[in-house]
Amino acid sequence: MGAPRRGAIAAALTGALLVLVTACGGSSSADDSSGGTGGEDEKNAKGGVELLISPGDGATDVATGGELRVTVEDGTLTEVVVTDAEGGTVAGELDEEATAWEPTEHLANGTSYTVEATAESADGETVKETSGFTTLEAEATFATNWNVPEDATVGTGMIMSITFDTPIENREAVEEAIRVTTEPEVELRGHWFGDQRLDIRPENYWQPGTEVSVEFRTRGVEGAPGVYGTRHNERYFTIGRHQVSTVDAAAKTMEVVRDGEVLRTLPVTTGEPGNDTWNGKMVITERLKETRMDGSTVGFDGEYDIEDVPHAMRLSTSGTFVHGNYWASESTFGSQNVSHGCIGLFDKQGANDPSTPGAWFFDNSIIGDVVEVLNSNDAIIAPDNGLSGWNTDWSAWGSGQ
Description:
Distance between the termini: 18 Å
CATH class of the largest domain: Mainly Beta
CATH topology of the largest domain: L,D-transpeptidase catalytic domain-like
Oligomer: single chain
């Protein structure tokens, strides 16, 4: 998944509109041309150009992919413009000989389109022709959801995660419709977790300063029989500085390293025996200056319910956070593991004391930063629990689940 990819588009010419252009620049409608070409010998004698638009004028229930195509014989295409009823245009490209044009994206369902094509003969004569058609209605649609804030600057551990609100059967077509380009260029791969989530990342952490653009072109893509996408827009983000914070659960410390420099080593508390913190690489996906943490939402029965947890940053979908802790004594941090699985830093109630370790780490972290846990008495976190795909080897990334 690197530069934009384009799926094969069938050259469906059934019901095509045929226009004959003579050497003197005259043109005829589809009906006139069918009655006045006089065969191949007459066309050659007149130096005619055949301009074909598929689907034909007035066609209905046209498929959103594989049917739209404009071709020319004995001439070249100089312009093809395809617009919908609201004036939106369809992106497309000519082949190297400028004899064929095809769209580079799917069409929208239940939409009327107009094709305006211009062809030129070898002696410079031109013809313009217009044709209209309507695409088929979708029986159902699927939404394409995205995890990176618009125009954000994120840490080098960011993984792009796209989720769908219905199972996707045609994964290849949907994946091809999500086009990611980067500057500088880097190889990217997509990995499916089940049939409703696609995560995309490079082999190693991003290079700081990388600019990423994502074109969502799932509109009109059939993700499952009769179920079509609707998204058609672009999103952009930038990779910021490289920060990895390593938590040693046995030593009860967290070393914060940015761009190769150790910023601070902070005392922490991690999961108590039986509620140990996950090992492995995790990514900050959410930052909350204060939030409520209710143990009943993650499987604990009334063990805690704290309304104002300060400086909380989410690391997993299952409820792992790195956060400030004001209810344990300051001496706990660095000496005991007493949490229910989170990584705790000494903090003050109200989240208004910038001198505390919890506040400092919050102020020095961004979405996409990596927190790696070592030496905890637990397994490595699952790669689909949060943005934990960095725990999957590159050789296995992309194989699907």
